[in-house]
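User: Before I run my own analysis I want an independent prediction to cross-check against. Here's the chain; please return only the structure tokens and, at the end, one sentence I can use as a sanity check.
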Amino acid sequence: MFGMEELILLSALFAIAILYSSVGHGGGSGYLAVLSLSTLAGSDPIWLKQHSWTLNLVVAGIAFLHFHKQGFHQRSLTLPFLVVSVPMAFIGGYLRVDGVVYDTLLSVVLIWAAWRLFDSQSVDFEVASGVPEFREVVPWGASIGLASGAIGIGGGIFLSPVMLLNRWATPKVVAASAAAFIWVNSAAGLIGSAASGQFVLDLDFISIAVPVVLVGGFIGSTYGAGVAHQSSVRGLLVAVLLIAAGKRVLSLLGI
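Assistant: Structure tokens:
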């Protein structure tokens, strides 16, 4: 399994793990985009989702450990979102959701989030207004959890801009919460998908891909948690959102 396609695929997964983990993400949207272009997945959305979640578990886990070690994890911010989102991620993983309309909406949301973050340069993201009330968490946590399970991601691509734009936490605190959120929701989605009677993990591929994203995740999260400035993390997040949206748009256009 070391032909040219596999080498290109593994290199892309490595780069995705570095970039996404630097902002506390697992890379699910990036993995979906890259894997969908390979001959390994074919046109099976279940295959894509389950492999995306598996790689998410590895990279998001490493990212969380790094940001937590640096003292950026705020449990009071993370737990309410987990309580609300996990059941919905399980339900979303159990369902089989396809369709151009959903992909279009996803692209619009990602581009909007990136634009809002980029356009908010005058906002001091290093000053947070505080942890949201539970009633504010419920609609966001539930909708992001359901979307995560339905399309095969961990949800950090949605959660991070929501937290930052509402000024619930600073960028690195958001990164820590996003990593935990992604890990738990990826696990819930994977379990929900398996519970539907479909479990299609390619263990040969996983045994090679996991070490690759493990190293990439270590490099990216080490930089994001210990070296990068808060504004740099925000800039990286904008890049991540635009890349994810761009991949979706190209897919919709058949490119």
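Sanity check: The mean pLDDT is 85.
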